[in-house]
Amino acid sequence: MIKKGIGRQIVMQYFIVVFVTLFMVEVIFSLAIRVYYYDTIYNHMSTHSTWASDFFQKFVRLSSERDPAYFTEMLRTFELDNTELMILNRKGEVKASSNMFQADKAIQTSDVMQAAAGNMGKWVGRQTSTGEMVMAVSTPLQVRGENRYIVRFVTSLEAVNANLMKLTLFSAAVCLAVLALVTLFSIGLANSIVKPINNIRAVSAQMAKGKFDVRIKGDYRYELGELAATLNYMAQEIVRSNELKDDFISSISHELRTPLTGIKGWSETLTLGGFDPEETKIGMGIIAKETDRLIGLVEEMLDFSKLQRNEMKLVIGQVNLKELLQETMLNVWAKAEQKGIQIKLEDRTTQPVTVTGDGNRLKQVFLNLVDNAIKFSDENSWIHLVISRTEPGYVLVEVVDTGIGISEEHLNKVKDRFFQVNHQGGGTGLGLAITQQLVDLHHGTMDLHSELGVGTTVSVKLPLSEEEETGNGNNSEPDASAAGEAALDSGRNDAGGEKNGEEMG
Fold first, then answer.
1. What is the CATH number of the domain that holds 21?
2. Residue 142 phi, psi dihedral angles, 5° rounding
3. Which stretches are transmembrane (predicted)?
């Protein structure tokens, strides 16, 4: 007995469909074979009835018509095997019969009545004298254009019905065998579906309990294979996310403990007193610096939390992109100066570029990108900020550095939350994730191209403001002379000049 579940439903559905189909086929087959046999018998007897009628009309004479010997001759000539031949008058009274038993009363079946009316008649029913099933075919016999007699053939259907019953039982047995085979096949099919589902269900139940190291094993095909692969991928991603979360907790704990240790140490030291003003100033500076660092870490986590809950509110306005990048360069100038890194802004557009967005959040985007470029660049290297308009309606800002670069293995993961290529470098691993989401909120895109040991280029594409797009649509690309001048100025700046560009270092 199959227990309740999808397996039983599959078997029952197959069983019902096949059973109904076979039942209909059995009924149609039984009716068709019965009609075929009965029609064959009827055609055979009707043909002989027609011959008898034609023979009677051609050769009968008035003198011989009333001669009972003629009927005897006619019975002997047209008699059929296993068939009774009778000659009746119009009242249904038997005048002659191939059977030695004579009917004691007139025959009034439907075939006789039709023949008396001048038509060939057929009747199937039970004979009153014997109780067996018979078929009777009656044809009128005309004398001088008048229906005077009726020739009637009667045959038993018991043997035919017995054969029909045998065929019906045989076909029913075949149908039952087919139904049994289909049921066995459906059970096998149901098991082939239910077993993988049970396996997937058991493994997913363990995953639901937190055992994400288990995997669904088995080479399943089609939708079941896709489901198994999806659950395995989900478990893998959860494990990876948990690892990243653990790394984040470890990293952020270290990031928070370090400044807190410095703040606590200097505050306890300054509390003791006895320091000259210069030492006190240094201590207070360290406390202020570590406090700013803590505030930055907390704000970064708060921003990420708001973005995850879609609670980040943007103050939309018109932002001059070049001015915003210049402010960004000023904010990171001191940090770049410590490593001897030169930061240069290169504007390849012909007119000021304005975008619609939140100036503070866009500044946060580029501050994070430039700060990462400084953090992962070697000393005495350079960073370029390039503004260009590569396609109508958009402005492209590229942050190009010659730092350590990112391997292909990590390139697709650096924008994931909590992910850090170098856990010793500090930070929360949320910077690029926040940056990506802020760019998305401004309907822009951010792409990373990097080569290990060569450098990294981060490209941020933002839509121009409507006024900028309609007013300067014809100037989306600089002309040849402007492009040549920009290239010349770039070469001069690389050589140490500072024409047509902004440079800090």
1. 3.30.450.20
2. -100, 145
3. 12-37, 169-194
Please indicate, yes or no, if residue 99 is contained in any of the structural domains.
Answer: yes
162, 181, 214 - which closes a domain = 162
Domain region containing 396: 317-504
End-to-end CA distance of the chain: 83
Q: How far apart are CA 213 and CA 233, in angstroms?
A: 11
Residue 123, domain member (yes or no):
yes
Q: Is the pLDDT of residue 250 over 80?
A: no
To the nearest whole number, what is the mean pLDDT of the chain? 79
Phi first, then psi: what are they for 120, rounded to 5°? -75, 130
304 and 338 share one domain: no
**Cα 383 from chain centroid?**
47
Tokens 């290297």 sit on residue: 381
The rounded distance, in Å, linking the Cα atoms of 348 and 489 is 11
Beta-bridged to residue 42, according to DSSP, are none
CA distance linking residue 179 with residue 12, whole number of Å: 12
Run of H or E including 163:
helix 158-208
Q: Do 17 and 145 fall within a single domain?
A: yes
What band does 195 get if pLDDT is binned at 50, 70 and 90? Answer: confident
Reported as half-sphere exposure (CB side, CA atoms, 13 A), residue 290 has a value of: 19
For residue 187, tell me if it sits in a domain.
no
Nearest of 206, 255, 269 to residue 234 by alpha carbon: 206
CATH number assigned to the domain comprising residue 267 = 1.10.287.130
Helix (H), strand (E) at residue 418: none
Reported as a pLDDT band with limits 50, 70 and 90, residue 89 is confident
Q: How far apart are CA 426 and CA 254, in angstroms?
A: 8
**What does the pLDDT read at residue 326?**
92
Q: Could you read off the pLDDT of 456-505 as tens digits, one per residue?
A: 899 999 998 876 655 554 443 433 333 333 333 433 334 333 333 444 44
Number of domains in the chain: 3
pTM of the model: 0.47
Asked if residue 86 is part of any domain, the answer here is: yes
**Average confidence (pLDDT) over 38-42:** 93
